Sequence to fold (106 residues):
Amino acid sequence: MRLTKFMALVSLDEQCAEVIGTGLPAQNCPFTLREKGAAPKPSAFHKVVVTTDDGEPLRPGDVDHIVTMTLLTEQAGKDAFAAGCRFDLWHGTKVGHGLVSRRVVI
Fold:
């Protein structure tokens, strides 16, 4: 399996506290992404693992937290989530949004 990694700025909604509690782990936290503008069909959702770059957990209300994301599926294609791509962040339900800052070559 080919890994796709990218750096992103992630913001979590204040209302997501009822979904995620007070915070999520800084290392290997699972999420689902949907590229903004993608049709709302099952193939538009992609599983990722998120690691914060500062080692701090993700908390409701965080704005522009720098993270590294690793796609766990190949269905997104090699050009998916290019720099400048906006996405919605899901953890059971929509909990935030983000912006890809750059791809990481593996």
Summary: The two ends are 12 Å apart (CA to CA). The mean pLDDT is 83. The domain at 4-104 is CATH 2.40.30.10 (Elongation Factor Tu (Ef-tu); domain 3).
